[in-house]
Write a structure and sequence with these properties.
There is one protein chain. By secondary structure, this protein is of the alpha+beta class. It folds into five domains: 129 residues, Sandwich (Jelly Rolls); 41 residues, no CATH class; 111 residues, Sandwich (Jelly Rolls), CATH 2.60.120; 107 residues, Galactose-binding domain-like (Jelly Rolls); 94 residues, no CATH class. It has eleven helices and 38 strands. It is elongated. The protein starts with 14 loop residues before the first helix and ends in a 5-residue tail after the last strand.
Length: 657
Amino acid sequence: MEMKIKSQVQFNDDLSQRSNIVSGDSLSNSFAKIHHDLNDYEIAANIAANDRPKNLLYIHDILSDSVSTATEEILGYPIEAGTYVYSAEIYTVQNPSVANVTKIEFLGADGNTVVGTCNIACDTKKEEHINVTLSDEAYYIKYYRDTYSSETVGYLKTSKQMICLPNVYAAFPEYTMYAPSLGETFLEVEDSVKTYDVQDTYNSSSYKAISGKGVAAALETLDVLSVGGSGKYISAIKETDGKIEATAETMDTTPTENSTVPVTSGGVAASQALQETEIGIVANAGAKNYCPYNSLTADSAKTIIDKQPINLPAGTYVLSCSVTASTNSIAVRLLKDDTSLWNKTISNTGGLITEELTITDNANQITLYTGVANTISNIMIRSAAISDASYQPYAKTNRELTVAEDEDRAALIQQVDAGAKNLSPVASGGNGAQNFFQSDVFDFPAGNYILYLGNITTDATGNVNQVAFYGADSQNVGESQYYYISRGNGVYIPFVVTAECKYVRIYAGSNNSGSAGKTMTFTNMMICTAADWAVSQKFVPYAPTNRELYEMIQALQNGGIVNLVYGMGEEIPNNSDLDDYKTPGTFYVLNNTNASTIANKPIGGSGFRLIVSFTSATNRQRQEFYKPNTPDVIYIRNIGTDGNWSGWYQFNGTAVT
C-alpha cells in the first residue's frame, strides 16, 4: 500500500473533512479525497518531504524604519539558485512612484551582488505572490519602499513571508512557517541565535513545527509495530491492516565468510583488532610457521625423531601436524641446549593433531616420539594469536633473512677485498720536483669510482688538493675537469671518468699555481668502483684482477716463464740505461748497432744478455752481463748499501778438457 501524508493546514478539503481530522473521527469519509490530492501532488510532496522544507525563508515579519531607503535582512540559510515563488502580506506608507508596488532584491554572499529581484503588489492587506529567479545562492533579502531605490518616505511592513518551489506552492499555497531540513539546526545570525520551538500536538492556528511524536499521535490509525533492539537489524517491512510491521533479526557478532547478515560494530572492531595482531606477528616475524621441517619420518628401527634444530622464541603457540599411522599417542618436546622447556604426550588416532603450547625461553631443539614407524607431515608451529589454522610451509623469519643477508654480504666483502678491488698500482708517492704527482701506470675504463688515500699531507696553504684524470692522449677524461680531496687520514672522493683513464694527477696544493714549490706526499692509494666501495669501504692493497691473474697463468703455461728464465727474455730498447734495470728478469740486445746506444754496460761490441736478480733483500739487486762471442767471461755488479750500483767485475773462466 502506498501512503502519502500531508499536514492538516495544507488540505483544501471542506470544513466537514477538516472537522473529522480534528475530532479524531474515522478518516473514511475523506480518505478518497485525501488519496486523490496526494496523487495529484506527489512530486511536490516528495520534494518537500525528502529534499527540504516547504518555506525556505527564515524571516517572516519585517518592520522598517522611516529613514533608510531600504531594509536588509540575512536569510539565515542560503537559498540555492533557481526559480521560486515569493509570497507575503506587504503594507507600505509612502509616496510611491508606482502605486501599490514595492521592490524586493536578493543579494549574494558579499551582501552587494544582486542575484534576483521582483516587484510585488503591496498595501493590500492580503497575501500576494510572484515568481522570482535567483542566478546564484542568495544570502540576504532587501526591501524597498517602492520600485525605486532612492525612496526614503514612509515605512514598510511585511508578514507571512514565504519562498518555496513553484510546484510546491501550486500544491500547497497556504502560508507555512520556516523549519529547518532534516539534520539541520538554526544558524547564528548577527551574533544572536534565532530558534523556534516544536510542539508535540497538532494545532491548526500555530506556526510551530510539529514533532515526530505529534505526527505519530495524529496518525494513530497508521501505528507502526516497534521491533528490534540492541544487536538487531530490520530484515523486512510490510503493511498489514493499516499497520507497518518490521521483521527483526539478530546481527552477527563476528564476520562470517559468505554471510549476508550484518555484523555489529563491536564484532567488526574485534575482528579488525585480531587481524591487526595477526598481521603484526607475521610482519614482525616474517613467517607464520616456525617449524623448519615440513615432515619427519621415523622408521621401525628408530621411533624417535630426536633433537632437530628449531628457532622458536618464548611465547604461546599452536602445534599442528598430520600423522600417517595411528598409535596410542605421540610425544613432543621442545628444548634449549638439551634442557626441556615443554613436554607433552598427545593422543593420536591418526590424521590431524592440534595442541597448544607455551614456552618461557627460546627453544632451539625439537624432539618427537612416535612409538611406531610413522611419518609426521604438515608440521606447523604458529603463534596462538594467529587464528588461521590452515597449513603453511616454513619460511625464514625477517631476522633469519637479515642474518643470511649479512652473511652473504660478508662473503661478498671478502671476495671484493681479496685483491680485485684496488685498481691503483701506485701505493704511495709524492710530487718530487714537480708541483704535482703523476703516473702513467693506471688503466681503468669509463665509470664511477672512488679515490681513497690513507693519508695526504702538504705544506701548501688551504685544506684540499686538486686532482685530475687523463687519457692516453693526455686529454682530461674526468666528468669534472678537477676534483678536490681533503687533507688528512682516510680521505676519499667520488669521481667519474668518461673514457679510459691512463694518468692520475694529484697537485701539491688546491690549484696549479698554489702548488708551485710545495711538497706533498700520500700513502695507501686506492681507486675502486663506486659499487665496490658501497659494499666495503676498507682499504686493500693493489692486486691483479681475476682476469689478469688468469692471463698471467696462461702466459706461464704457454712457455712464458721458460722464455723469461731460459730464453732470450725481454728486449732492451735503444738508448736505455742499464742502471734502470732493477726488476728481476732476463733481457737482451740483438746486435752491435743497438748495443752502442745502451748506457752503463761493462763493455762495448756486439749484442748481449742481461740477467737481473735479488741478492739478499728487495733493494739489493745483482746484474749479470754475458757476451755471445766470449762464453768464458761474465761481468757482475751489485747495488750497495748506499742504493747505488757498484762497478762491474769481470770473471774469466778456464776451459774444461
